[in-house]
Amino acid sequence: MVTKVLSVQLKEEERGQRFNLFQIQAKVNNKLTKLIIKGGSCHNLASKEMCEKLGLTMIKHPHPYHFQWFSDCGDVKVQYMVKVTFSIHDYTNTIECDVVPMTVCHLLLGRPWQFDQRAMHDGYDNTYAFRWQGKGVKLLPMTPTQIIAANIKRK
After folding, report:
1. Are strands 107-109 and 91-100 parallel, antiparallel or unpaired?
2. Which of 4, 28, 43, 109 is the most core-located residue (most Cβ within 10 A)?
3. Residue scoring higher pLDDT (152 or 25)
C-alpha cells in the first residue's frame, strides 16, 4: 500500500507544481521546521506548539483578533505574537508572527513577508524570487516526494 501511495504522488510531481502549496524546510533555533508561503494570507503565522517547544518568547498581541479559516475547531482568538528568526539555506530573516494553534505547518509566511521582501511568485514553477543583502534569492519548493519523506521523519 505504501508503494502505491508513493507512485500516485510521483505522478502528481510529474505534472509540476500546479496544485501544490509552496512548502519548504526552514531552521528555527537550529531545528528543522515546516514553512509554507501563502500570498493569500494577510498575516505571518507561527504555530503555538513550535513556539512552546523551542522556547520562543511570546508577547501579548497589541490588537487581539479572531481568526477562523485555518482551524477546524472554529473561531480562534489571536492573543500573542512572537519574533521568529528562521533560515533557508543562506537566507536568514527575523519576522513578527501571530501565534495560532495550527498543525499544517510551523511557520506560514503571508502577504506581510512577501511585501517586505518584494518577493515575486512564479505560479508555474511555484518559486519565490527576491533580493537579499544585494544578492538574488530564489526559493524552490519541496517536491511531493520530499514532503512525504519529511512528514514520515517527523512522526
Report:
1. unpaired
2. 109
3. 25
Interatomic CA distance for residues 121 and 47, integer angstroms: 24
Angle (CA) 19-23-25 rounded to 5° is: 160
| Domain boundary assignment for the chain | 2-150
Instruction: Report the topology of domain 2-150.
Output: Cathepsin D, subunit A; domain 1 (2.40.70)
Amino acid at the residue 104: V
Per-residue CA distances from 56 to 31, 40, 41, 79, 81 (Å): 13, 26, 23, 15, 10
Does residue 137 have a pLDDT over 60?
yes
Band of the pLDDT at 3, cuts 50, 70, 90? very low
- 3-class SS string, the chain: CHHHHHHHHHHHHHCCCCCCCEEEEEEECCEEEEEEECCCCCCCEEEHHHHHHCCCCEEEEEEEEEECCCCCCCCEEEEEEEEEEEEECCEEEEEEEEEECCCCCCEEECHHHHHHHCCEEECCCCEEEEEECCEEEEECCCCHHHHHHHHHHHC
pLDDT tens digits for range 55-90: 999 999 999 998 876 556 667 899 999 999 999 999
